[in-house]
Amino acid sequence: MNINAVTRRTGLFLTSAIFLAGCTVGPRYQPDRMKPPAKFTEDDHAATPEEIEETNKELKQWWHLFKDPELDKLVDKAITGNYNLQVAGQRIMAERAIRDVQASQWYPQVDTQASAGNVRYSINIDNWPLRPGTAAGSANQPQAAYLGYGFSASWQIDVFGRIRRSVEAENRAVEESIEDRRAVMVMMLSELAGDYMMLRDQQLRLEIANNNIHVAQDAYDLTNRLYLEGVGNTMQIAQAKAELDSQTAAREPLKTHISQITHAIDVLMGQMPGTSELELKVVRPLPPVPEFPSTLPSMVIANRPDIRKAERTYAEATARIGVAVAQLYPNFTIPLNFNPNASALYQVFQMGGMSWQFLMMASLPLMHGGKYTSQIRMAQAAAEASRLAYRQSVLNGFKEVEDAMAAWHDDEEHTELLAKAAEDSSLASERARKLYAAGLVGFLEVLTTERTTLNAQNAEAMARLERLQDAINLYTALGAGWQGIALTNTTLPVSLEKQNILARAFQQ
């Protein structure tokens, strides 16, 4: 057959295959749009577009709303130093590398090789061909020098989009890893802010405990003085001493908890526990509660990383259906081999030493016992499960927001009432001590009012902490905090480009 005719047919076949490469099988991804409600059931305020725009800006760095410079500084350190966040960033880069591995199938795969040396064969074989010039019966040494070099290449023509669908799926996997990092960011910010509020709460309760120890000490001294004056008795002295010991003992767990919280904050910032202990133990008041944010239900779907990840998981699963469907169609490959061989260096470049192969190969699955159709059904089921999981993520997201809003509204009045109760109890305790000093009431009344005051003060402090945690929970439920924070990168000590000079030239 004429070599030119073969070349023309091969070129025509290759051209046709390349034109067919635009045919990508499998379903196209269509987002499963869930319509959010017109407004939250727990939000009666009709926000204006200007208020919502302002809220969107504020929620990007919601920790600033607490107006606490110390908290702002801790957040900045945690964003740059938190190891979980850095690990999540490395997983993004790993997923991108996996995506690039899949994309490499679009390009020809080329390798080269070379060999040289002596080849000696066994002579214990009948009718072994004698070397030229060797007489029969003489020593036969079937050996020769060998030189060879060449290269091989293979190019897979993606006619039906198997590679394209694989790259599409890996692109979605990259997006999922990005959302994973954003989720780590949201939870890290929530944990850090929650720990900080708990630290300030424990410091406040420690201050309350110290004040109550001081009051108990005064009551004990007063009881002793009255006894010496002939007014009191030893039972009252014992009661006063027991109260003083009880108040002193209640202070110690607070000190332990404060140390543990500072250690947790250090770990969130990526530093050894105890690094910031002296700095964090400086007593500061609880921050004020921010104003209730003006929000829209659509913010939940737009911002929450778990919902965004679920949507991308569904998109990835849809692309995997196309990968499975493409297995039913022909697979086209162009192999190319060029391998000159000779026994001497000057012969390597002669026409007689040339050896090459250029083909167009196609394979089509015929009978595999239903393997490929089963893989398609499996991919379809996985995609449908991902779609349903996305819908469940949306429902869970709205539930968390509604719960956080309800807690915010309900705890506001609760805190105000407890603050009034603490104020009234403190006034009652002060009056009871004065009446006891005047001999108008017994010491039991003093103990009762003091314990009531302590409980009221601690309840108020806890309620203030819950109000601050309500705000943190709402910001977290809305998926705020990751916007505008860039991916943290780290550099490994080994650079692949420095290990192999070819890596710089050919992007291996």
From TrEMBL:
Membrane topology summary: Lipid-anchor
Transmembrane segments: none
GO cellular component, one term: plasma membrane
A molecular function (GO) term: efflux transmembrane transporter activity
One Pfam family it belongs to: OEP
Main location, first listed in the record: membrane
Similarity comment: family membership: Belongs to the outer membrane factor (OMF) (TC 1.B.17) family.
PANTHER family reported for this sequence: OUTER MEMBRANE CATION EFFLUX PROTEIN, RND EFFLUX SYSTEM, OUTER MEMBRANE LIPOPROTEIN, NODT
Protein's name according to its UniProt entry: Cation efflux system protein CusC
Organism: Komagataeibacter europaeus (Gluconacetobacter europaeus)
